[in-house]
Amino acid sequence: MNFKKLKKKSMLILTLILALVFSVACTQKPPADAVAKVGDTYIKKDLYERQLSIFKKRYEQMYGDKIWTVDIGGKTFLEAVEENVLEKMINDEVIKRYMEKEKIQITDEEVQKEYEQYKESIGKDQDFNEFLKENDMDEEFVKEQVIRSGLYAKKFQEKVIADTSLDDEKLKKYYDENSATYNIEQVRARHILVSEEDKAKEILEKLKAGEDFAALATEFSKDPGSATKGGDLGFFPKGVMVPEFEQTAFSLKPGEISDLVKTQFGYHIIKVEEKKNEVIKFEDVKEEIKSKLTDESIVNKLESLKKEYKVEKYELKAEENKEEDKKE
Questions:
Q1: What sequence ranges are listed for the domain PpiC (predicted)?
Q2: How far is it, in rounded angstroms, from Cα 1 to Cα 120?
Q3: Which of 58, 127, 184, 207 lies 20 to 30 A from 191 at CA?
């Protein structure tokens, strides 16, 4: 008997069996009561619905029960809240796993201290007990799902901020690289507004003949806010006027007069008096830049961790599994 061939054949069969077992394990359906997965931890539907119920009661207290059907960007308010609650629970689990990996723990003493402050914020013992009952919560739920997750999130932010180390040099570098953002172009212009095109053409001919713009604006303009000031609108940056007006005003040089400009308000004739660039100083926006970069660092770190922990969302899959289980 050829033992070498037998050994090779046995190893091949073993390899195929292991590959088959691994493949089956990898394609295993998630539990029917799971809505998401972080690493090897499932977020269960009952806990998700419990969290969702708390948020729903808070929103109804603020806005009433009609809020749920309000459209916000192509989805109902309810759908948006459902997505946000699930995302929060995923973030909480991701942060918890990361902090435990980094050996950053939340002690029971820290939780108890925050819990006592949480109780005080609600009111007396009787008020707090009623609050727990109304929101289907108990002491353990508050400590684990509200207090501990909140403390983890706080320490996570502190760690990211410390790791990012946003000193003045980094902030100034961002400011310099994005100087256009802090250089605001402004125009000072006058205009004459009338309803009829023929009237606008008549006024434009007067201007071309050398008549005074301010005098004609005072006489003919239908804009009550500027007519008495000779049509003067003062300085304004981009994003203030309607697009047609803005495009023309910023394209003119000081002293130039436009042709007729039609907008939703009527027919305009525009004269640019001055142009200027107002540069916002670094010191005036330093804290704003720091806040922006800090938020970006936290979001980027969180998104990176979600990829590392292979986050999955499958609330729909969970529903499908339920239906399949019923059929079986």
A1: 184-274
A2: 83
A3: 184
- Range 137-155 burial, b when 16+ CB lie within 10 A, else e: beeebbbebbbbbebbbeb
pLDDT in tens, 200-258: 999 999 999 999 999 999 999 999 999 999 999 999 999 999 999 999 999 999 999 99
The H-or-E segment that residue 190 falls in is: strand 183-194
Q: What is the token pair recorded at 288? A: 């704003």
Q: Which residues contact 297 (CB under 8 A, 6 or more apart)?
A: 160, 161, 164, 166
Nearest to 88 by CA among 41, 143, 51, 141: 51
Instruction: Give the domain extent around 255.
Output: 181-279
What length does the chain have? 328
d(CA 200, CA 124): 71
Angle at 148 between CA 151 and CA 293, to 5 degrees: 30
66 and 146 inside one domain: yes
